[in-house]
């Protein structure tokens, strides 16, 4: 029912392309073969592109380096919009002083740290400093002891009435080089949220704030209409739902989460309808 | 624990004020006494203000008139941001032709109609035109037969893989002149969504798109920082959660949904923390 | 992966068979062809059988008559266990006096009425008798005005702290003679429950109380082990999940809700695994 | 509105008493002072009693010993009905061979082990034995490495279409001697369930199967009506909701989860109404 279209002919209709990262540019085994051609083509055609990704484990600078390592030197850090950037903006705007407790690696905290707040891992929160904790941020699933620190997180949130920020809404992510998955911090956040009964603040697709952040960056330099932007993703309920809701045209690519045989069933079952379906984002 | 502050002293710190409508400006019995003074004060001080409301039952023009009727002549239609406007923008951007089926009054459909699409009530969808239905919009809880048309809606969405748009996320609204409530179209939407198992597209607070729409309008005329904007609302999980997440400072007023005696308990229980708490939005 | 087995050879291993009604015995078009042979075979083999059905629209007597009308004279009312019987038992045990308000037809209320309580439709609840309302029962999706009476129901439950009983957990049911569905009272109940934020008491599969009711009836006459009972159903998340959890062996039949092409996908996706899969319950 | 009644005068109306354990008999600091008098009184009056508890960390024998240690020698193991017993019954009835993988302590597995199946911790499941895993049971929050084994659990359930059994539905439990809580295995189960998208089989209050198990034990020796049984608990949504639904009269005691000042608010908010409210279960 949904005809699979040629990616190049789709891309030719738009001025600006938003890409999801995993399943679109990268896969279990590194760079998806041919994606370097896509970015070369976009440069050649003078089209702008952004990577819009649910990732709060690293800074845009570090994310850009991860593309360079797999041979995609063209990706600059200012082309990367991550959910971590939104978490950082939230802290800059809304938390003025005190401690920001976090779950994640030191590296993930280093990025949000730059806002001038005092970041401390959840494991460092004690009865002596808990009263200064003014926000709790869930950044990454690594870098802490799950049993100890998830229990600590629940107890901090029972004692302190403070915002809890989830910097990545994904529930799982694939493990490179295997066909297994890991529980992402967004999945952990859902458990903690249901246990403490409080409402967390979540950043990441499908929420429009991700798209708006990119849209705003573009408009600072040049006037643009939503009609000129195409969102490319492999996941219906984040990339496509979010893109659609923000008013963008969307392409579902079949190189990641959504397998070619399942695409139609899933589109029907969810009611999340991409504007186009393409095999991959390779031109 | 949360000290109740004077609204005027709070407002004085900001350049732009966003107001929720019901429970802040209006109540069961019409205009909340003294609100005309608030808007006079804002005009006098050269502060900008917007009404940011989950309402898709009428156009901004008609909403403005409803304020004029209760004696608040100052409110102009271009100061009103409604969730209906976002639904309309979505249709303009994303649905190019065919029929848009709707649940709501003719008046609510008239507003989205202007986008050039053919709007038809769900009751007018038959086996002969169902194939042309390219979107379904839930606008208002009145104007249709619930038993017949909610069942029709379920069957349309089982047959057609199309976007379903909810133009007002509220689950209930108060009935003027009583202490009773009515089920809002957002509550009905949740039922239909769970029955058909599809993902609906929802517009309205706490979603950031509402705040972004207002923010964009302002920035077209003048540069502004989120730090300069204050969101005033009576409901924690729409007004305050949404304002906070967008990065705005927020005031919870105790003139509507959140009663003075419950405010602290609810803030603790939900973890949704306003920047300030004020008795009302009257200066 | 799941081999489809012959129903007779499966049935031969058990002494007592529980059947779901719709999709197993009856379909859109009346009796499923051949089911009269199944019941004749069970009688001949001296096996006991029960119909375990989520239905609160009629008494077991009336349900038995509905089988007689389509030519299945063998089904006696004492072989029918309905979720309505559990709702009735609840009222008998737990509500001692006053009014039981209901949503449903007069006929559905007539059945629960026999417990000696005063049953009144929600439409008859006024400010003068609301204080005597000691329970609210959701029986059937017909027999009332949805807009008026669902709004009344919400307001009754906001004013009175009383149990709300849902006598049928199904969210939809198929309309005879068409390929359309109707919203069942269980779907309506979910909406009301989420709007008033209270916990409803639900009777019906997959809840074990349905199976226990039948199990108790049998044990009054003869000792029996759960190992001797087979549950036959067409729906994974009611019949099969409920049967499994109660400790029964289960057959998924492909004559109703679960289509032959979808069975394996759905079993994998839900993790609800029947002991057997059969084309139908026809011997 | 809800008058607090004397526990002895309530108990005098019933022949059989079901007690929840934590918050009713025991608290953070061991035995609730005076509970030894309650059990002496019940013995003296010839009333039967059972402890109905969401606990799968130990056998009834070990649970009985835990009462002896705090000075309540009267509690015999055959008076204890735990959710672990239901999990064990499920495995006995429904899983015939192969490996049962588990999350929990060795001691918790030892109890279910007796059914003749081969139990192995999730950490011992490899590519070589995963095909023999026929069920996965979540028993206790201790005894395993959360990060490693929760990720392993997700991947086992992605690869194997097998029942996942949750032997304790509680989301948190209090830590003795502190005012902190621990995440219970039921809370962990909810996260895993939502991540893998499968339906788990849960045993524990408020599910009726817990009450039925006790009810059946009693009826083996003596005829009894549900009208003769009283359920005593400190938690509305497990003890009281479950007892009510099963058709029992219920007492909410204010010695545990539900604080005296919150009782009325919570009863109103949840709509879960106990038959009586008592300060504690001390006579």
UniProtKB/TrEMBL annotation, chains A, B, C, D:
Key word Transferase present: no
**Matching InterPro entries, A to Z?**
HAD-like_sf, HAD-SF_hydro_IIA, HAD_sf
Gene Ontology cellular-component terms for this entry are: cytoplasm
Q: Which GO terms describe its molecular function?
A: phosphatase activity
Keywords per UniProt = Hydrolase
Stored PANTHER family: 4-NITROPHENYLPHOSPHATASE-RELATED (PTHR19288), OS08G0542600 PROTEIN (PTHR19288:SF90)
By what name is this protein known? HAD-IIA family hydrolase
């Amino acid at each position: 029912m949904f005809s699979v279209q040629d990616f190049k002919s789709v891309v030719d209709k738009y001025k600006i392309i938003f890409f999801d990262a995993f399943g679109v540019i990268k896969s279990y085994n590194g760079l998806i073969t041919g994606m370097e051609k896509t970015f070369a083509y976009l440069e050649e055609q003078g089209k702008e592109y952004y990577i819009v990704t649910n990732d709060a484990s690293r800074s845009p600078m570090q994310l850009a380096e991860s593309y360079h390592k797999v041979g995609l030197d063209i990706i600059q850090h200012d082309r990367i919009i991550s959910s971590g950037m939104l978490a950082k903006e939230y802290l800059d705007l809304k938390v003025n002083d005190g401690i920001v407790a976090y779950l994640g690696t030191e590296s993930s905290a280093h990025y949000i740290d730059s806002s001038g707040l005092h970041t401390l891992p959840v494991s460092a929160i004690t009865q002596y400093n808990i009263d200064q904790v003014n926000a709790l941020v869930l950044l990454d699933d690594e870098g802490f002891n799950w049993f100890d620190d998830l229990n600590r997180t629940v107890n901090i949130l029972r004692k302190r009435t403070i915002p809890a920020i989830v910097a990545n809404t994904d529930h799982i992510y694939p493990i490179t080089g295997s066909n297994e998955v890991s529980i992402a911090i967004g999945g952990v956040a859902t458990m903690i949220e249901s246990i403490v009964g409080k409402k967390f603040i979540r950043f990441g697709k499908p929420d429009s704030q991700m798209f708006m952040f990119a849209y705003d960056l573009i408009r600072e330099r040049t006037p643009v209409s939503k009609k000129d932007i195409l969102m490319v993703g492999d996941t219906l309920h984040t990339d496509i739902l979010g893109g659609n809701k923000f008013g963008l045209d969307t392409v579902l690519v079949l190189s990641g989460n959504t397998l070619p045989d399942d695409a139609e069933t899933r589109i029907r079952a969810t009611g999340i309808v991409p504007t186009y379906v393409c095999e991959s984002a390779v031109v």
